Amino acid sequence: MLFQVGGQGTRPTFFEMSAAQQLPASLRAALTYSIGVLALRRPFLHKVLDHEDEFFSLLMLVLETHSLRITDASFAESLYGLRRRTVKIRVKKEDARPNSGDGIQQSGLEKHQRVLSVVFLVALPYLKSKLHSIYNKEREARLQASLWGNGDETVEDAEYVSGGESSLVSREATIRSRLMKKIQKIMFVCYPWLHASSEGMSFAYQLLYLLDATGFYSLGLHALGIHVCRATGQELMDTSSRISKIRSNERERLHGPPWLKALQRALLSCTYTMLDYAQTGLIAAVFFFKMMEWWYQSAEERMSAPTVYPPPPPPPAPKVAKEGIPLPPDRTICPLCSQKRANPSIVTISGFVFCYACIFKYVSQYNRCPVTLMPANVDQIRRLFHDM
């Protein structure tokens, strides 16, 4: 069996595919940040944040459907000039000529492949996000139960035992809650294995793609039989004509009285304009989010960094009193005994150095510095272990 890519564009690099896969996450973070900032002054936008998964999935459903319809690529792949192609593998016969074109042949996407691509691009990430949130809630509930005890079951049991007509309603609610808890417990046990299997398969496919051992970047592409390749120059040039042809066919299929057709054309024009500028606007939102993230991160680093102040200047040198003992020209000589200093000690109030025995005796008798005549006591005498 011969594997070779036909002339439908070259194979994208691993880094291009990784960037295309990470773009929806960056887009979601940018939109969440922008809505969170706007919600500070418009509290009704918190409802959008409460249903963040549904809002983002609906947005991606519109974008992915539109992109697959006009470019045969996902929203992120179209930004990098990539296209999805159906892979058809044929076995090369021995008696066939070498240039017969056997091997992998690529063609445009079929309708069911576009639908399944939307499922893999939108529905599966939404389901994964919901399962992750259920797992986190169950984990927090178990953590709280281990710390504070499970008091909810006692309340439910009390409602279940209570008699009267109201007990029927509470009994149904109790059965539903117990069923939901059982489902959540099952998901709590199964989700880590499902998540590990999914991440392991993704890692394996990405590693094989990086090593040129497979042409499929993910398990979903392999299951659909789709290769992602770079668009040729002719394909990029034909995209605009294809879009205009699709839109003209949609306008021709309009039915109804003239005023209804005019209204439908106006709505279609607004929709086309929004879809045309959605790509540019969302990329600008991602860029703005990254810029603001860098700005606030650098500001936080500046605020958290310790302020470095210059060292304070040294205090002015003490003045020698007119009635005090004069300083000898040699700094190693003690001013009191006029000998070389032994056991040098300093008077902290003035900073002059003497022999320990000389200065201790003088300060004990006069309670002052012999040079500056400033008041001092024996507690202000410090021994120097390194004499200059």
From TrEMBL:
SUPFAM superfamilies registered for this protein in UniProt: RING/U-box
Name recorded for this polypeptide: Peroxisome biogenesis protein 12
Localization annotation: Peroxisome membrane
Pathway per the UniProt entry: Protein modification; protein ubiquitination
One cellular-component annotation, GO: peroxisomal membrane
Entry keywords, A to Z: Membrane, Metal-binding, Peroxisome, Protein transport, Transmembrane, Transmembrane helix, Transport, Ubl conjugation pathway, Zinc, Zinc-finger
Topological type in the membrane: Multi-pass membrane protein
Domain of life of the organism encoding this protein: Eukaryota
Family: Belongs to the pex2/pex10/pex12 family.
Pfam families: Pex2_Pex12
Protein task: Component of a retrotranslocation channel required for peroxisome organization by mediating export of the PEX5 receptor from peroxisomes to the cytosol, thereby promoting PEX5 recycling. The retrotranslocation channel is composed of PEX2, PEX10 and PEX12; each subunit contributing transmembrane segments that coassemble into an open channel that specifically allows the passage of PEX5 through the peroxisomal membrane. PEX12 also regulates PEX5 recycling by activating the E3 ubiquitin-protein ligase activity of PEX10.
Molecular function as annotated in GO: ubiquitin-protein transferase activity; zinc ion binding
Keyword Zinc: yes
GO annotation terms (biological process): protein import into peroxisome matrix; protein monoubiquitination
Domain named Pex N-terminal: residues: 21-298
Main location as per UniProt: membrane
